Structure formats: structure tokens, C-alpha cells
Amino acid sequence: MQNYKKFLLAAAVSMAFSATAMAETLKMGIEAAYPPFNNKDASGNVVGFDKDIGDALCAKMKVEKCEVYVSDWDGIIPALNAKKFDFLVSSLSITEERKQAVDFTDPYYSNKLQFIAPKATADFKTDAAYLKGKVIGAQRATLAGSYLEDKLPETEAKLYDTQENAYLDLTSGRLDGILADKYVQYEWLKSKDGSAYEFKGDPVVESDKIGIAVRKGDPLRERLNKALAEIKADGTYKKINDKYFPFSIE
Questions:
Q1: Which candidate, 53, 166, 220, 249, has a CA 20 to 30 Å from the CA of 35?
Q2: CB atoms within 10 A of CB 162
Q3: How far apart are CA 98 and CA 105, in angstroms?
């Protein structure tokens, strides 16, 4: 009888833990202003590569509910550390500076930094001598913004709160060019507004590793890494990749 009672108690504890796991809710943070990786559709819903990856990871971790929280880019890491969400999947470059504030998963895609400028500017070059005095746009608090300030100090860097605002100034003639992630630029160049512009030169940064951020020491990092490996192994990742790009960004 005692063994039977112990069995029932163990079963009850196991069921309680399972119910807790099944009822888990995780909150993902996204900027929602960086298409095709993250933005909002006509109905105001958050969509994009980052959102799809986040949803796929939650499914692999068997999370009952995965909620999306939108944050301005400048405050997105502070919002994570203030526990406004649990993980940040918003095309965040893995940098030594950011590692001081958050922990990163394994990279979930790789990007490159490349200039775009008007097709009519046939002589556009990406060297420091040509870019001296030129007005080049980039998003604030990004690898591109840091590159302009650190590598091209004699270039007039204009930094924007969103990538979309940089494009607005480019099309208004206020910028000579933009430096940003290649795959974001690739998407914009296909648009009507971007049709008069093109990539210039080779990428200036060839391997920009993008990771998912969690708070320092959070064990969620290992769960996300395991889920990321699983969606790459079972073809889920490739399906999401192919939805947005005709080439692999892994």
C-alpha cells in the first residue's frame, strides 16, 4: 500500500510539472520596423523572418503561448533586461559590447554590411577618400552606424531611429547613400521606391552574425539553442528562409 501511495504521489508531481510546462508563456521582443525580418502587415500584425523563427522555436520548446512585444530599437535591450519580454529575436548583431549586457544564442543567420546609392551615381566608391564629406545614413545603435563612426570618421554620418526613415531621406535627396545589412537592402531595392538605387562595391563587413538575446545567465538560452538546432535539422528553418529569400542566409 505504501509503495502504491508513493507511486500516486510521484505521478501527481509529474503531472503537475507537465501541466506547468504546457501552460508556459514566453514573450518575444521585436522592433517590427525592419522588413523583411520584422515589420507590421496592413492589419497591424507583426510579421517577418524573425517572427517566424521565434514562433518555430516556441513550437519546438512546446511553449503553450508565445506572445509578441514591440519595442523601439534604441530601447530594445533595456526592455529585455527590464523583463518586458523573455527573449529578443530582432536581427541583433552579436557584438562584444552587447555581450556585456545580454547573452546570445548561437547565430540564427549571417548578414553583411553593404552600401547602396543612386544608380545615377556611377562613380560611387566605398573607400574613405571618396566618402570624405559625403552624407551617409544608417540606423542608430547598429553595426552599420558604428562602422561609419569608427571606420569613416570624415564621412558625415546621419543616424536614424528606424531603417525606414533612412530610406525616406535617401529618396528625398538628403543622403548620398546608406550603409545597412545587405539582406534588408536587398528587399528594399526590389520596391518601387528602391528601384532607382543599387548596391555599391563589395560588402564592407562580410560576416555579421545575428543572434537571439536573453538576459545574462538565463537558462532559456540553452533551450533556444536546442530548438534552433532542431528546426535546422528538420527542414523548418529552410522553409522559413525560402519564404523570404531565394538563397540561404544561414
A1: 220
A2: 17
A3: 13
